[in-house]
Amino acid sequence: MKFHFGRILSVDLGLKKTGLAISDELWITIRILENLVPKSRSNDIDYLLRLCLKLEVKFILIGYPLLPKSSHEGMMAKRARGFYETLCLCLPGGLSAFLIDEAYTTFEAGERLKLRKLHLGLLDGESAKILIETFIYDQINQI
Question: For the structural domain made of 7-142, what CATH number should be given?
């Protein structure tokens, strides 16, 4: 499947805070957005859809945390899948959603932040940033 460029918003769901990151239209840069403090699934989806409209997002990625050794769904993966399925029911035309395997993104994000001597309050956003990098890498390799 061939993709056209457009802004990507990624979501690293969490119980206490949800990391967000966004790409530019040409997939050259990715920046971390302010974390979302989860309230309810409907409120969070409403917030994300308004953000997508405001920022002219074309793709929204939901991190899918499968268990690393078995690739089975744990509690958070089931939560992410449910969030994704509910989001898909609400998507306006022109916006596509994807579940993206986020195995080891939190670990990688932590390592990156340590190397740059940055505060770990950015961990969720950095994980969301890695989701976008993974998506872009996969799309480029399909060409």
Answer: 3.30.420.140
